[in-house]
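Q: I have 273 residues here and want to know how they pack in 3D. Can you give me a structure?
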Amino acid sequence: MPQLPDKQEASPLAQYQQAFADHLRRPDLPNPPSVQNHSRLVVYRRLVFNNFCSFLNSCFPITRSILSAQEWQQLSQTAFSGIRAHSPLFRNIPDIFLQWLQKQPQPYLPQYPWLLEFMHYEWLELVVETHAAQLDKINHLMPQVEDPLNSYPLPNPTLQLACYRWPVHTLQTGHIPTQALPDAHCFAVVRQRNDHIQFVSINALTAQLLQLLIENQKPLGETLQQLSQHADLELTADMLQFVQEVVQQMLDADVLLGWRKAHEPHPALGGDG
C-alpha cells in the first residue's frame, strides 16, 4: 500500500487565495497568477488596509494621537504585513494586533517603553464594551447580607483585571512618563449596569482577591483564607474589616454585582439567574 502524504496538498483555489492574500499584505511580492488588472488590485489592497486601520484607530485613539503620523502609519503597515489572523471577526483585529506586538523579538518603537502596556490599557475598554454578558439578565442577587464571610459575592462577568509597571492612567498627549512605577498599578475594568465603562484603581492584593473570586466561586471567608496563604497575611479582625470595606467599594462600582445564595447557580457561568 503506498504511503499517504503527511499533509494534503492545497487545492489550486487555496493556493491562489494564499498568493492573493500575501500580495495584499506585501505588494512587493509578485502579482497573484491570472491577475491582469494591477490597478484594481492596488485599489482593493488600499480598501483592505484602510479597513484594517479603522479598527486600530478606533481602539487606540490616544496611542495614535501620541505617536507621529509616520510612526503610526509604519506600525499599522508592519502589523498588516506580518499578522496572520485566524478569526473571521473584525472586532478581534485589535486583540490579534496586540498578540502580534507582544511576540515581536524586539520592542517596537523602543523609544516608547510604555507603548505595549498603554495599548493594552486602551484595548481593555473594547473588551469590556463588547463582552457578551447581559447584566440586566442577572438577577436574584442580594445587595446586602448579614454574614458576608459565609456568603458568595458575584464578580461582574465583564470584569477584566490588569496590572501595569507604567502609569498608563495618566498618559496622554503632552504628559508622557519617563520612568516606570516602583510598584505595579492595578485596575479592575467593568461594564456597569448602566453600560458605562469603569476603570477602578485597585492595589495588587485586591486584584488577587478578585481573581480568586472569579476562579473559586467560594464564600468570601474561604476565599480570604486562600488569599492569606498566597500573600502570607494574617487575617486579623482589622484585616477582615478592611476587606469587607473593599468588597463594599467593589459592590458600589459594579465590580461585584451582589451576593448569591450557595444553592443558586452561578449566573455568569450559564445559570438562568
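Q: Anything worth noting?
A: The first strand starts at residue 152 and ends at 155. Confidence is low (pLDDT under 50) at residues 1-5, 269-273.
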